[in-house]
Amino acid sequence: MIKILICFSVIFSSGIGLNLYATHHQPVNESNALDLAANSKSAILIERDTGEVLFNKNAQEVLPPASMTKIMTLLLVMEELENGKLQLSEKVRISEKAASMGGSQIFLEPGEEMTVNDLLKGVAVASGNDASVALAERIAGSEEAFVEMMNQRAKQLHLKNTLFQNPTGLPAENHYSTAEDMALLAKELLKYDEITKYTSIYEDYLRKGQENEFWLVNTNKLVKFYEGVDGLKTGFTNEAKYCLTATAEKDGMRVIAVVMGADSTKNRNSDVSAMLDYAYSKYTTKSLFDKNQQVTSFNWLKADQQKVNVITNDSISILHKKAEDLTGIETDVKIDQDISLPIKKGTAIGKLEVKKDGKVISETDLVIEEDMDKAGTFQLMGRILRSFLNK
């Protein structure tokens, strides 16, 4: 067991005002007074880096999420790609079950083979239920096993009011979520920058040049008609009505807007557009650290590679109103006291806390930059000897 404790502070010459509640994801005081999302049963607006809630309307009301369910499906696909268990170029054989899915689809045929890359397009752009099940079966072996993965991941992300019964969002008993949980899920998915390369596509083709060529048109029209929108996922069933989890980025600030239970496509898009307008007219962000930026490093006597770099797990920003003067901000790096070797690249070993007037307003995981194993006996002896001789 290695005993480590590192804690240091950095004082920034400029900071923010008083409206930061990222740690607890609480809404700003004026949130409930805003006349937004009038056409939707529930809604939420958050800034992605800090997680601060800018607007909240019944955001914890349990409702059917329809095809916004596919945000979790996409997250699990991206995680499999990241850990090397799935490749974009891999061809997936389509089962009878996947091909038989109703609702929105890309009209896969039983026995057809399609690359993971094209199936991802089918999910992200056309909301294909058949493509979602095909990817689920490839990753977990069956749709049922994949649903277990979805619910386990939901627990890990502390989505307290979410339960999935399928990877598509097709109507099912006890299949539910909330606007708040959808925003947190989208926040996690957006750690993968490349996902917006798919969700921002407005139109494309599958099987281009073949007899069964299929034209993909994005179900999220805002990617074409609202500047900065590059995702994320629409939803509709008779029970859920019109839903949308949208994300946009302007001037370095990314926000997530979720509406559920809107009464029409037009009103759904109008509600989201108004929420985005509000965010970009009132707020801006100041970047502190980029994703994967080195924050510190230290020496581990008992590790095979003695010098270890510690990096951010996500981008870190502070959010403030455009009219506010910036004041001092403090950051603390805290590394866990007990770390056991070996540990894998990407394992969280501490936190970077952003503080305002001594109060923690946000915290982000710090991770190890590369795999670390135990040093061999001769390595340890050599280091101890060199340390002794250098005294």
TrEMBL record:
Residues 283-374 form the Peptidase S11 D-Ala-D-Ala carboxypeptidase A C-terminal domain. Keywords: Carboxypeptidase, Cell shape, Cell wall biogenesis/degradation, Hydrolase, Peptidoglycan synthesis, Protease, Signal. Its EC number is 3.4.16.4. Signal peptide: none annotated. Pathway: Cell wall biogenesis; peptidoglycan biosynthesis. One of its GO terms (biological process) is cell wall organization. This is serine-type D-Ala-D-Ala carboxypeptidase. The keyword Hydrolase applies. It comes from Gracilibacillus oryzae. The active site is at 67 (proton acceptor), 70 (proton acceptor), 127. Substrate binds at residue 233. It catalyses: Preferential cleavage: (Ac)2-L-Lys-D-Ala-|-D-Ala. Also transpeptidation of peptidyl-alanyl moieties that are N-acyl substituents of D-alanine. Removes C-terminal D-alanyl residues from sugar-peptide cell wall precursors. GO terms for molecular function: serine-type D-Ala-D-Ala carboxypeptidase activity. Belongs to the peptidase S11 family. SUPFAM superfamilies: beta-lactamase/transpeptidase-like, Penicillin-binding protein associated domain. The keyword Ligase does not apply.
